[in-house]
């Protein structure tokens, strides 16, 4: 009985989310005691302290190759190392490896590990652990979806304790990226265990800055500094991640000084904070370009989207800046390639299609679409230009679809919007290929290889070229890009690829949004503005000066 | 009576199997499985490896075969392990060869939800009874009107909104109550007394919100039950023979008016283990509602089926208990069963 009424009362929460926002804007809260401290004064770096952040979901486990969700990777990234890592400009750098050589035929990569590394339990970390991890990820019994890249290795060997060598049948350029994302696991703790069920996933031992201190199911995970960290000591002593699914509750916790870090949405960033000077005294806002972009994708196997003029016309008919202003409140950038602006792979000479409805109409006319019957909708051979846009339950995608619908209507294209829950969306539309247009997102991948998304061979059900893009020239470039390990030569290949992709317009790039972390001003040492790798790239250098720490304040 | 009970219990088994079969089929009607979650929509995750996962979890077999496998496990009360959360046991903890305890998911979530719901239910009854009686005794006069208005406001006010307002008021503007979560950061090092008070402070708002919404139903139920009874002839008789008003009301009227409440309480037993997704999300409480909701989104079939099975078993038991209690409380019902 209580449960039934409880849930009934809670339905329709979004309606009042607006009212809640209004109240926050209007209210003038009692100045908390902490306002007496000036958080802006400079302090020298020192170690110690606790940083509390909030995440919406709980990790399923901390072995990243088994757990795909972002919560797991976020926490596991503080516990485990990979052979390589991306630096602040998203260039590859050694992590466990101090260097790596690529053989002349580009088929063999030799990693030289840093000497004297240890696991958090004070046992040596050697190339045997790396080999063990490779065997695990390629083992058919391991329940990982990420094995494909590692199965391309035909031979893996450890000539000595500090050398790890892998050979591929043919050069495989994304290989280096794959060694930057594989967390190396300790052989001495996992040998002989079933990786799929091992308790290690919930009490891991790694080699990075932090080690697990405590995991309270459904409540929080606490990490504490690892004295044997292979990359040197971090400054902050303890990291606590609280699981708070609701964004509004997270925000209240931030206001009440109970958490130090959360990711804001554009409303909070651009509307609430500017109106609340008291908040700006203690909380600093940051902006970092996110790792994904939103696009509108055509089903190229359906008419009329097989016609490049129709695709380009729709591209011209969509006002990207309007989407950025309306959906993201200006907190995003347009993109013209599937690579993060400001990195090597993003072609600086490409520009998004400008908003030009006249050009769109002209292109459609060329393609045979005109309003012959005078009903306000363009038609060809008696068939109106009408289609359905499908997307999943994602506020930003929904709002984008609505804005796009209006712009298309203006030039005489009739579109309907359909919104589904994720698994239904994938099962009903993506897998079957039974859609006209989707609004979705892809990640702006760090490695430029996007064979899986754009190569014409990747169109089977369950594969990721579900829009059916097929261009022999692009296929060839994608194949070449995989064979070329030299970054300069590789860059040229992908710049050309992005250029053709933009012209072909199989998708309309809509925008890439900013991540909007809000961090309490007690946390110092943050790089602002954020480099391409984001605000967290030097989190091990962040520090919380003694006088600003939570307990010290409450004592005063 | 005993025969009646045995019959009822016997028929619960096929009923449960039937419910589980229907649940299983409906669950599989929704497209997608654990390998089509948003996190797996990643070009680095190849279709072959996803197919491999499907085979490992038997998701490639016909639904009815999957159901058979599930039923076979259930026959030994094995709820299985979760697909999504690193093979955590669905129901109760398991201990591996190294002595590591892996706690069950329902085992973790159930006590939390039970605590909040039992306290709420107790609070609702403790408040709704007097409110309902006063309402009935002052029918259509000011106290009755005021009480009815109050409980309806409580019923109509959106719980999530009130929750956020109260969180803001008691947690941000004033430092009276914690905002969300179940335990404070230093909980592990607290004395047992501090632990209890910490937990009570954390569940105060969730319980308050949940009780406020449930007040209207029960108080109006009591009110109407009382009014019905008060118009019966035997009440007139009791008054006519000169019994004091208190005896008439509490000795004669109330006892009869409370009979239907037994049914409601019986029916609320399954509700005790069901949490509200939104309330639990707002207050960051890892209870049953959130567990079930996440399992549905992740298509974590063993968890979904585990919760549904326990829920339907409790519903059947609750119905039975309500009937038995009814028979115990009301001789008329007893006679009906005997015939």
How is the topology of this model organized?
The complex is a heterodimer of chains A (556) and B (339).
Chain A: H1 2-10, H2 13-26, E1 50-55, H3 70-76, E2 84-86, E3 92-94, E4 97-102, E5 108-113, H4 127-138, H5 148-151, E6 153-160, E7 163-168, H6 175-181, H7 187-190, E8 210-216, E9 220-225, E10 238-243, H8 247-255, E11 261-263, H9 266-272, H10 277-282, E12 283-285, E13 288-289, E14 292-298, H11 308-317, H12 320-327, E15 332-333, H13 357-366, E16 379-380, E17 383-384, E18 386-392, H14 395-410, E19 414-420, H15 422-430, E20 437-443, H16 451-454, H17 472-483, H18 487-504, E21 507-515, E22 517-520, H19 550-555
Parallel strand pairs in A: 1-10, 18-19, 18-20
Antiparallel strand pairs in A: 2-3, 4-5, 5-7, 6-7, 8-9, 9-10, 11-22, 12-22, 13-21, 14-20, 14-21, 15-21, 16-17
Helix pairs in contact in A: 11-13, 12-14, 17-18
Chain B: H1 2-29, H2 47-56, H3 63-75, E1 94-95, E2 101-102, H4 105-137, H5 142-156, H6 159-173, H7 192-230, H8 233-240, H9 245-257, H10 259-273, H11 277-283, H12 288-298, H13 301-329, H14 331-338
Antiparallel strand pairs in B: 1-2
Helix pairs in contact in B: 1-3, 1-13, 4-5, 4-7, 5-7, 6-7, 6-11, 7-9, 10-13, 11-12, 12-13, 13-14
Main features:
heterodimer, A: 556 residues, alpha+beta, four-stranded mixed sheet, 19 helices, 22 strands, globular, disordered N terminus, disordered C terminus, B: 339 residues, mainly alpha, 14 helices, 1% strand
Descriptive account of the structure:
The complex is a heterodimer of chains A (about 550) and B (about 350). With about 550 residues, chain A is an alpha+beta fold. Chain A is built from 19 helices and 22 strands. The radius of gyration of chain A is 26 Å and the shape is globular. Chain A starts with a helix and ends with a helix. The model of chain A is unreliable at about 1-20, about 25-35 and about 550-555 (pLDDT under 50). The mean pLDDT of chain B is about 85. In chain B, strands 1-2 form a two-stranded antiparallel sheet. Chain B is an all-alpha fold and about 350 residues long. Chain B has 14 helices and two strands, in the order H-H-H-E-E-H-H-H-H-H-H-H-H-H-H-H. Helix content of chain B is about 70%, strand content about 0%. Chains A and B meet through helix 1, helix 2, strand 10, helix 8 and helix 15 of A and helix 2, helix 4, helix 6, helix 7 and helix 10 of B.
């Amino acid at each position: 009985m209580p449960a039934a009424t409880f849930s009934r009362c809670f339905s329709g929460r979004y309606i009042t989310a607006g009212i809640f926002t209004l109240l926050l804007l209007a209210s003038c809260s009692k100045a908390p005691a902490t306002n007496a401290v000036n958080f802006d004064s400079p302090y020298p770096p020192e170690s110690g302290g606790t940083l509390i952040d909030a995440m919406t979901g709980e990790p399923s486990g901390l072995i990243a190759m088994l757990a795909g969700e972002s919560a797991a990777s976020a926490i596991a990234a503080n516990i485990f190392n990979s052979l390589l890592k991306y630096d602040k400009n998203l260039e590859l750098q050694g992590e466990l490896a101090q260097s790596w050589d690529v053989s002349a035929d580009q088929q063999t990569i030799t990693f030289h590990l840093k000497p004297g590394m240890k696991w958090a339990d004070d046992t040596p970390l050697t190339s045997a652990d790396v080999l063990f991890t490779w065997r695990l990820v390629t083992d058919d019994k391991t329940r990982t979806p990420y094995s494909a890249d590692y199965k391309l290795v035909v031979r893996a060997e450890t000539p000595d304790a500090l050398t790890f060598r892998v050979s591929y049948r043919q050069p495989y350029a994304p290989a280096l990226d794959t060694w930057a994302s594989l967390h190396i696991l300790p052989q001495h703790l996992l040998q002989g265990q079933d990786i799929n069920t091992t308790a290690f996933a919930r009490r891991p031992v790694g080699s990075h800055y932090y080690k697990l201190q405590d995991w309270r199911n459904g409540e929080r995970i606490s990490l504490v500094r690892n004295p044997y960290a292979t990359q040197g000591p971090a400054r902050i002593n303890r990291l606590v991640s609280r699981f708070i699914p609701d964004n509004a509750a997270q925000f209240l916790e931030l206001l009440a000084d109970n958490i130090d870090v959360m990711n804001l949405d554009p409303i909070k960033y651009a509307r609430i904070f500017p109106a609340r000077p008291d908040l700006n005294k203690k909380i600093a806002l940051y902006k970092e370009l996110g790792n994904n972009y939103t696009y509108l994708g055509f089903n190229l196997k359906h008419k009329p989207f097989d016609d490049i003029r129709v695709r380009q016309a729709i591209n011209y008919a969509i006002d990207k800046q309007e989407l950025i202003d309306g959906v993201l409140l200006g907190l995003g950038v347009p993109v013209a390639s599937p690579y993060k602006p400001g990195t090597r792979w993003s072609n600086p000479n490409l520009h998004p299609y400008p908003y030009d409805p006249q050009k769109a109409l002209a292109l459609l006319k060329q393609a045979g679409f005109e309003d012959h019957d005078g009903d306000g909708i363009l038609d060809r051979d008696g068939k109106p230009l009408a289609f359905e846009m499908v997307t999943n339950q994602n506020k930003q995608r929904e709002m984008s679809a609505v804005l796009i619908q209006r712009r298309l209507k203006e030039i005489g294209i009739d579109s309907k919007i359909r919104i589904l829950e994720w698994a239904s969306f994938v099962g009903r539309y993506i897998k079957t290929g039974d859609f006209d247009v989707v609004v979705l997102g892809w990640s702006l991948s760090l490695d430029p290889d996007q064979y899986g998304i754009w190569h014409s061979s990747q169109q089977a059900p369950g594969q990721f070229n579900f829009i059916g893009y097929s261009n022999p020239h692009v296929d060839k470039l994608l194949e070449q890009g995989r064979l070329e390990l030299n970054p300069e030569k590789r860059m040229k290949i992908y710049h050309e690829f992005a250029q053709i992709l933009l012209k072909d317009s199989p998708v309309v790039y809509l925008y890439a949004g900013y991540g909007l972390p809000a961090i309490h001003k007690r946390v110092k040492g943050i790089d602002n503005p954020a480099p391409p790798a984001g605000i967290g790239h030097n989190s091990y250098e962040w520090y919380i000066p003694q006088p600003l720490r939570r307990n010290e304040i409450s004592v005063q | 009576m005993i025969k009646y009970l045995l019959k009822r219990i016997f028929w619960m088994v096929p009923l449960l199997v039937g419910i589980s079969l229907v649940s299983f089929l409906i669950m599989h009607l929704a497209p997608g499985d654990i390998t089509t979650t948003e996190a797996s929509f990643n070009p680095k995750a190849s279709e072959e490896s996803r197919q491999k996962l499907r085979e490992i979890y038997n998701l490639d077999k016909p639904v009815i075969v999957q159901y058979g496998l599930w039923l076979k496990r259930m026959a030994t009360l094995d709820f299985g392990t979760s697909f999504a959360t690193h093979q955590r046991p669905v129901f109760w903890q398991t201990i591996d060869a190294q002595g590591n305890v892996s706690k069950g998911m329902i085992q973790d979530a159930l006590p939390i939800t039970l605590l909040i719901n039992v306290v709420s239910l107790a609070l609702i009854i403790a408040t709704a009874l007097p409110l309902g009686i006063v309402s009935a005794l002052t029918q259509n006069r000011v106290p009755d009107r005021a009480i009815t208005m109050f409980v309806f406001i409580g019923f109509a006010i959106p719980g999530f909104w009130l929750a956020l307002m109260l969180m803001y008021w008691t947690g941000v503007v004033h430092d009276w109550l914690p905002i969300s979560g179940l335990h404070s950061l230093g909980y592990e090092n607290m004395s047992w007394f501090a632990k209890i008070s910490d937990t009570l402070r954390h569940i105060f708002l969730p319980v308050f919100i949940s009780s406020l919404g449930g007040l209207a139903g029960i108080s109006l139920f009591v009110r109407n039950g009382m009014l019905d009874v008060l118009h019966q002839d035997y009440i007139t008789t009791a008054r006519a023979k000169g019994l004091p008003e208190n005896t008439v009301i509490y000795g004669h009227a109330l006892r009869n008016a409370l009979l239907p409440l037994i049914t409601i309480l019986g029916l609320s037993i399954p509700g005790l283990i069901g949490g509200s997704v939104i309330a639990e999300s707002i207050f960051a409480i890892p209870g049953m509602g959130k567990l079930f909701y996440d399992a549905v989104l992740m298509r974590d079939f063993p968890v979904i089926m585990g919760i549904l099975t326990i829920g339907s078993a409790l519903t059947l038991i609750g119905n039975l208990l309500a009937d038995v209690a009814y028979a115990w409380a009301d001789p008329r019902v007893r006679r009906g069963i005997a015939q």
